[in-house]
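Review form for a predicted model. The reviewer records the input and the model, then writes brief findings.
Reviewer: anonymous (R2)
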Amino acid sequence: MKKTPAKLTPAEWEIMEAIWALGGSPSVREVLDHAYPESEKAYTTVQTVMNTLEKKGLLTRKKTGLVNFYKPTRSRHQAVKSEMTRLVSRVFQGSVPALANHLIESSNLNLEEIEAIRDVVDERAREIRARRKGGKSRD
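Model under review:
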């Protein structure tokens, strides 16, 4: 059975966003300086969150000398996809159209934003049609 990716707390999202933005394998100090440039969080707080992310399997840790360097095990895209899948399943009973309808109806979108959304949907529909014509039906 496939393991469900771990759910991220808001604090964990902040840390992961910093790690993805930094790229590579940043240290706790690098993440702290990037995510909290005004020292809004303590070093030990960031270290604790990063160790929790490692235990959840979202980061790997490599120690060089006295410094731990952390690397994400999933891309931001993969994490967002997991989170959105969880949200759609829990709140919209698995219906992506219901989510889209909710976002469009409950937001104060202007005409340009609505047209931008339509352009994204139209482009995706063209991609799916092209794949179907080519004999590759994944959708």
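Findings: The radius of gyration is 20 Å.
Further findings: Helices lie at 10-22, 28-35, 43-55, 76-91, 96-106, 111-133.
Recommendation: see findings above.
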